[in-house]
UniProtKB/TrEMBL annotation:
This is Peptidase S41. It comes from Xaviernesmea rhizosphaerae. One of its GO terms (biological process) is signal transduction. Transmembrane segments: none annotated. The lineage of its organism: Bacteria, Pseudomonadati, Pseudomonadota, Alphaproteobacteria, Hyphomicrobiales. Gene3D superfamilies: 2-enoyl-CoA Hydratase, Chain A, domain 1, 2.30.42.10, 3.30.750.44.
């Protein structure tokens, strides 16, 4: 049962789990004020002086592009301008396959910060960790570099090398790695059977996530008879986001009714609300959703919806807290403007911007000795210039983004399995469905 929705986009194509909405119709711009025209005249005069008199010639077009990005970066960490080349790259990445290192990154203090390395990719295999700061790429400092340019330098032909210099918390000197690029295929969904429990991990929300989810559920049902199937673990840890329509569709796959998410912009009439439709693919089996500091954006839409509507119990640690929506607006020059236009809200009306999803059951995952003091907690609230969330407090958002490679060492997964099998009890599981009535 493939669910279809308006093609909204959310994802970390360039950075930390940006929520994407593609705009094909541009609203007519209002006339600028006299003061604005005067400032634009001043800008033009400054530009002319730089082009004529700066000590070294500047590449044509770069000054204006950098000025545009300077303006946008003063708004928030997620608004930016993409030239025609970058915009085309962004379109190609929606397919989920490219040559690169497999690192989800954002920009922080003029350095490239690793949000999370993707499983089984060159970056992960080389030992790059969440929280690492990339200071140089192929010997070139990233300071002053746009995030899109830094990402572009890490992408390239398969089997070609790229040299990274990393600064890691707890390390006494920079770490230098030479990594061979490989084809990065973003595998959206992985699944397996854990005895009498179905385990589904959504790695990112790509065009094929819903298709992968349906296949995973069908496979689990085939392997575990209905009368033995205790329920499902939906693992959204280290999931940086993806396509909004897929997040809505995935949420709907577990729901019969109720609001999934609403997006509210500057103008009240632009509010969008997405509702679930009848049809639970899991036949109402119990669900536990796993989240941590690497769960962001579209992953928070799903966990927030299932939590608020009491369809699932959320277990783990506080999520990233990325709750803003970026609209991609095509420009006449072939480029595109990525502009923050809205915040999204869970069914209960809560904004997770700067706060994240608080699990119903907190289970900390300790770091192994070799990573202690070296893995930094990341979250939206730690990004300089982020939009202040309506519910944001000094506690901020985010938490550890570590998941053990072996299931036996995964305390969060093991806690979920024990709850589903009745080996352990908690007041939050199963959730009390009567509390969700007002949200439906």
């Amino acid at each position: 049962m493939m669910r279809r929705f308006i093609p909204l986009f959310a994802g970390a194509a360039f950075g930390a789990s940006a929520m994407w909405a593609i705009s094909t119709v541009m609203e007519p711009a209002q006339a600028a004020s006299v003061a604005t025209y005067r400032q634009l005249a001043t800008f033009g005069a400054v530009l002319e002086q730089v082009e004529r008199n700066y000590v070294t010639p500047q590449k044509e077009g770069d000054l204006v592009e950098n000025a545009i990005n300077g303006m946008l970066s003063s708004l928030d960490p997620h608004s930016s301008y993409m030239n025609a080349k970058d915009a085309e790259k962004a379109k190609s990445r929606i397919s989920g396959e490219f040559g690169g290192l497999g690192l989800q990154v954002t920009m922080e203090d003029n350095l490239v910060k690793v949000v999370s390395p993707m499983d089984d990719t060159p970056g992960a295999k080389a030992g790059v960790l969440a929280g690492d700061l990339i200071t140089e790429i192929d010997g070139q400092s990233v300071k002053g570099m746009k995030l899109e340019d830094a990402v572009g330098k890490m992408r390239g032909k398969v089997k070609t090398p790229v040299k990274l210099t990393l600064v890691r918390k707890g390390a006494d000197k920079p770490i230098r790695l030479t990594i061979l690029r490989d084809t990065i295929t973003v595998e959206a969904v992985r699944s397996r059977v854990e005895g009498d429990v179905g385990y589904i991990r959504i790695i990112s929300f790509t065009e094929k996530t819903q298709e992968g989810l349906e296949a995973a559920i069908a496979k689990i049902k085939k392997e575990i008879p209905e009368d033995r199937l205790k329920g499902y673990v939906l693992d959204l840890r280290l999931n940086p986001g993806g396509l909004v329509n897929q997040a809505v569709s995935v949420s709907d796959s577990f729901l019969d009714r109720g609001a999934i998410v609403s997006m509210r912009g500057r103008n009240p009439e632009e509010t969008r609300r997405y509702e679930a439709r009848p049809g639970d693919l899991t036949d109402h089996k119990p669900i536990i959703v796993l989240v941590n500091g690497g769960s962001a954006s579209a992953a928070e839409i799903v966990s927030g919806a299932l939590q608020d509507l009491k369809r699932a119990t959320v277990l783990g640690t506080r999520s990233f807290g990325k709750g803003s929506v970026q609209t991609i607006i095509p420009m006449n020059d072939g480029g595109a403007l990525r502009l923050t236009t809205a915040l999204y809200y869970t069914p209960s009306g809560k904004s997770i911007q700067g706060t994240g999803i608080t699990p119903d059951i907190i289970v900390e995952q300790p770091l192994p000795p070799e990573l202690q003091g070296k893995m930094e907690t990341t979250g939206e609230s730690s990004l300089r210039g982020h939009i202040q969330g309506r519910n944001e407090t000094d506690a901020g958002s985010g938490s550890s983004a570590y998941v053990p490679p072996e299931a036996k060492d995964d305390l969060q997964l093991q806690a979920a399995l024990k709850l589903l099998r009745g080996e352990k009890t908690d007041p939050a599981f199963p959730p009390r469905t009567d509390k969700a009535a007002a949200l439906k």
